[in-house]
Write a sequence for this structure.
């Protein structure tokens, strides 16, 4: 399932899409996983989960001093590194500032890998949403 919406912002008589929203869902390892992407100016916010919970938030962005993007956990359990790691990999791939909330249990590494592969597929199929 996919849905896309946009909010426009008029500046100097020109309409530009300030924020666009892209939602998609996928059954992965017998679990329905929901993805919510908000494209922002210069970056995007990605929420991944199976229920409407914002359990953590990480941000990552490129640095002129290092080839790996900088990344930090803004909120959540610091022992759960999934959001931080995913934000860093997506920032490196897209060369944008990335906010990630990964609200899935870290009990199955196959689930995490499958979720990340699904996100990469969506980035390749629909780069205009990222």
């Amino acid at each position: 399932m996919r849905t896309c919406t946009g909010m426009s912002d008029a500046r100097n008589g020109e309409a530009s899409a300030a924020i666009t929203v892209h939602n998609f869902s996928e059954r992965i390892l017998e679990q329905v996983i929901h993805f919510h992407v908000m494209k922002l100016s210069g970056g995007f916010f990605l929420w991944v989960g199976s229920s409407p919970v914002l359990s953590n938030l990480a941000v990552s962005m490129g640095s002129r001093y290092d080839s790996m993007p900088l990344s930090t956990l803004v909120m959540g359990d610091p022992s759960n590194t999934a959001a931080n790691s995913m934000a860093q990999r997506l920032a490196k791939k897209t060369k944008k500032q990335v906010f990630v909330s990964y609200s899935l249990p870290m009990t199955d590494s196959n689930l995490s890998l499958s979720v990340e592969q699904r996100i990469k597929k969506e980035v390749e199929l629909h780069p205009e949403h990222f």
In short: Residues 109-125 form the longest helix (17 residues). The first strand starts at residue 2 and ends at 11. The CA atoms of residues 83 and 102 lie 5 Å apart.
